[in-house]
Specification:
The chain is α+β, with helices and mostly antiparallel strands. It is built from 3 helices and 10 strands, in the order αββββαββββββα. The protein starts with 6 loop residues before the first helix and ends with a helix.
């Protein structure tokens, strides 16, 4: 089982990142968290299967590449969340902060990951890019070593049960971002 991030602790740790200039990103994602009956929940999406999309069918977070209309990386993350799942996290909650930019090993991009606390009920309206989206409690994430067709060796991943399908495996960029998020609160908890 993965540690469960405390939203208030995350808010206090990440707040200073909002005062800093937006990271120089070529893509942004939004980590949407909410309080649920079984603790903190995260919004996950399964991307639609599409030819030419390297993330086709993968489970991830709302997000995408920076476009000319975006003022900054936060604008990108909010716009992509609106386009993919039908709500703006700035309207239905608050932005807690941003994680350190992530540079994937196999793609020439820099990804900013903003963390939002969703405090109001939202209706998920999926775009054609998203096959499914759902809220899942962090207590359901199980750390595993997994074999995935796209990776040459076993990878670290989270497995979680899913009501409408076989177990879901979260790996790659999304795994690294969630691991980074969980590491922030775990390290702070250990330091006191």
């Amino acid at each position: 089982m993965a540690p469960v991030p405390d939203i208030q602790l995350l808010a206090s740790i990440l707040a200073p990142t909002l005062a800093e200039p937006a990271p120089a990103a070529t893509a942004s994602v939004m980590i949407c968290l909410r309080d649920g009956a079984r603790g903190t929940e995260i919004l996950l999406c399964r991307r639609a299967t599409r030819a030419g999309d390297p993330w086709s069918g993968h489970v991830g977070l709302p997000g995408g590449r920076v476009e000319e209309v975006d003022r900054d990386a936060l604008d990108t993350a909010a716009r992509e969340t609106w386009e993919e799942v039908g709500f703006d996290p700035r309207t239905y909650g608050s932005i807690l902060g941003v994680l350190e930019p992530l540079t994937p090993r196999s793609f020439a991009i820099v990804i900013s990951a903003y963390v939002a606390h969703i405090t109001e009920e939202v209706e998920l309206v999926l775009s054609e890019e998203i096959a499914a989206a759902w809220w899942t409690p962090f207590v359901d994430l199980e750390l595993i070593s997994a074999e995935v067709p796209e990776a040459p060796t076993r990878v670290s991943a989270f497995r979680l049960p899913h009501a409408d399908a076989a177990d879901v495996v979260v790996w790659g960029i999304t795994y690294r971002l969630l691991d980074r998020l969980l590491g922030i609160t775990t390290a702070r908890d250990l330091r006191g």
